[in-house]
Every structure is written in C-alpha cells, then in structure tokens.
Description:
Elements: H1 12-16, H2 24-33, E1 36-37, E2 46-48, E3 54-56, E4 63-64, H3 84-87, H4 94-110, H5 122-130, H6 143-152, H7 163-180, H8 188-197
Antiparallel strand pairs: 1-4, 2-3
Helix pairs in contact: 4-6, 6-7
Amino acid sequence: MRAAAGALNRPVRKALEHEVHFEERIIWRYFSQMRIMHRDIKPANIFLTLKGQVKVGDLGLGRVMSTEDDLAYSKVGTPLDMSIEVLGGGGYSWKSDVWSLGCVLYELAMLRSPFKSKNLNRNSLYKKISIGDYPPMLPYYSEELRALATGMISTNPGERPSVEEAHSIALAMKRKMDAMGNPATPPPELRTLRSVFFFWFPATLSRIIPSTDVYRR
C-alpha cells in the first residue's frame, strides 16, 4: 500500500495544514457493497496518500458478509473505537462500523477520541461507552455535523444512521456550505473541518476508480 503521507493517527493538525481531503467514505461504500466488515476502524488504520486519498488498512480483522443484516460475534477491534455491542460480546452488524466511523469523525473535529481520558481501564471505558459519556462537540461546528457525529456513536445501534444515510446528510451539508460561500475570516478549526469533512463523503461511487482527480480547494 502506498501511503507516503502516513497514518491518520499522526498529529491531525499537521496533516490538515496540507489541505488533505479524506475519501474514506468512498472506500466504505465500496466495502459495504462487497459485504466486507472491517471491524477495526481507527485513525491508525486509515492511511493518506500525497494526493489526499485515503486507504483503509489492516484488513486482517475483516470478513465477508453475505447480507447487510448478518451478525458477527467475535470480539475484535480497538477498545477506544469499539461500540457497546462489541464490548459486551453480543452480535453486531454494519452499525458497529458506523460507530467506529463516528468516533473517527469526532476525533477529526475535536482532535481527540470521544472516550479517551486519564487513568482509563477497560471497565471504566465500558461504562463511559455504555452511557455515551463524552464531551460535546464545540458549538462553532454546524448543528448538522454535531448531530451526525453523535448519531453515529449512539449507544443504541438502531438509532445510528446507515452509511447511505450519513452519505446523504454529508452531501446536503456540502451543498449548503457551497451555497453559503466561505466567510471572510473563518476560524482555523472551521477551515479544517471543511477541508476534512465535506470532501470525506464524495458524491459518487465511481470515484473509487483510480484517476488523476485530486480533492483540493
């Protein structure tokens, strides 16, 4: 895998200084159609190319799924990004990957994992995740973004959006922001958010096909 820009778990601000536009949503739309469950989505498994493209790595935990509603029962993944159903050892489906993507989205905006804290052990982590105990996103982010991130990390899998629903929300947000135009002097955090989020969910599956397109402002 060519990922010369390194993994996403490098200092986020350093990566964002180079206007990297994430295409991870494209990859996951492809994976869902191929019935592949990754089960360990986290910044360390998301790699950036110098062209601003995203590669999802470490597929050792992935498996082929026969239908969208199939459940997997093994406890795998990374604790900070594990959903409550995975930590509890119960069956889980695609909504667990939605949870993990929500954790990544939160971390991109807030520059920290939603459930990370000092002196955290597995028991305290389980408690935090089970009750949805994490700092709210800062108010300078749009209501739509905050609602999407919190919805994706809902403790109830049935309340989480599907990948397609999240995609539709993101496209609507992008159109809205495009129509509004850029403010004269947006805060650095907002410029970062636009660079990452609104290009993270591109419009069509066809962009999975390698091309010369580079997503940059």
